[in-house]
Specification:
Length: 338
């Protein structure tokens, strides 16, 4: 049985309408069902309430002073901190064009005046259940991201590595023309790609000298462990192949599955290019930080050995050399040395 089968949603609902009678009617109806209700008399006041309160659902009139309901909805959906708030429009308008405009603004539902109280409550509860599921997913992702960063934090030499990879890989993915869902997967994978290292003892993970064959075998298990940790999250469906295969090599000499060429998922090949670059340009106990020029030269030699996808590397090299994103040069002097 689903955990939500007997779930009775609660939460804070924003009611924004420039008519006092309409606000009072909805506030009375929703408060009687156990919801906390906050109200606003216009669009600007509605956005202020969203800043001040943790809003779970917004009910907006369309025609309001200062900002219309459509404009308020657009701002809610454009803000990463609020875009998951469900929005219901209540309006006397029934014109198809108005509904299309509301859908474009990001509306989740519409009700026409006079409002049927039973229908309103049913739709409110349905959207709040959906938001509950979404919030649970967000919390699970946040836990994984926190875990990944805690692993990174064990080694002072890898500080900021996760964020850099999230940024680098998405930037390269954009250049390669990847769709938004794969760019999102790359950003997530940048953070959690090494989460499986939680299964690697610190004595191996932080060892400043060369690993023994036995230690290296344990280290090579971390991509599989990472995939297993993240597998329960359906939203990570496109992330899992990146986690598992970001240590494969184009010639089949990588791990864990010794995939080669185009059998390695494309997004994993993207991440591994920026992962290698970041490792080379970061100071480690056993080496100084390479300049961008030296890092690219080393990677070009590795491409010649058959380790990395030559086409993806060529795009990455151009990305750095054109100076499109200075962040990729990690604060080095403008341009690539040479």
């Amino acid at each position: 049985m689903s955990l939500l089968s007997n779930y009775s949603p609660t939460g804070t609902i924003l009611v924004a309408d420039d008519h006092l009678a309409n606000r009072e009617l909805l506030e009375e109806l929703l408060s009687a069902q156990g919801f906390k209700v906050v109200t606003a008399c216009d669009g600007i006041a509605a956005l202020q309430q969203i800043k001040q309160e943790s809003i779970d659902l917004a009910i907006l009139d369309v025609m309001m002073p200062h900002l219309t309901g459509f404009e308020v909805c657009e701002r809610i959906k454009a803000n990463p901190d609020t875009y998951l708030i469900p929005v219901i429009f209540i309006t006397a308008l029934s014109d198809k064009q108005d509904r299309l405009e509301g859908i474009t603004a990001g509306a989740d539902d519409f009700l026409t005046r006079p409002v049927d109280s039973t229908e309103l409550l049913a739709r409110v509860r349905s959207l709040l259940k959906l938001k509950y599921r979404t919030d649970e997913l967000e919390r699970a992702e946040t836990v994984l991201f926190s875990l990944a960063r805690s692993i990174e934090g064990k080694d002072p030499y890898t500080h900021g590595h996760c964020e850099r990879l999230a940024d680098y890989s998405a930037t390269l993915g954009e250049r390669l023309g990847l769709p938004e869902d794969q760019l999102t997967a790359l950003r997530r994978a940048g953070i959690v790609h090494d989460i499986g290292k939680i299964a690697v003892p610190d004595a191996i993970l932080l060892k400043p000298s060369k690993l023994t064959p036995e230690e290296w075998k344990i280290m090579q298990e971390h991509p599989v462990a990472g995939e297993r940790i993240c597998a329960p999250l359906k939203s990570f469906r496109l992330v899992l192949p990146i986690i598992r295969h970001h240590h494969e090599k184009f010639d089949g000499s990588g791990y864990p599955d010794k995939l080669s060429g185009e059998n390695i998922p494309f997004t994993a090949r993207v991440l591994q290019i920026v992962d290698v670059y970041d490792a080379l340009t970061t100071e480690r106990p056993y080496k100084p930080a390479f300049s961008p020029f030296d890092a690219l030269r080393t990677m070009k030699e590795e491409v010649a050995k058959g380790w990395w996808d030559p086409k993806i590397f060529a795009e990455f090299e151009q990305l750095i050399q054109t100076g499109k994103r200075k962040v990729l040069s990690r604060g080095a002097a403008a341009g690539v040395e040479g």
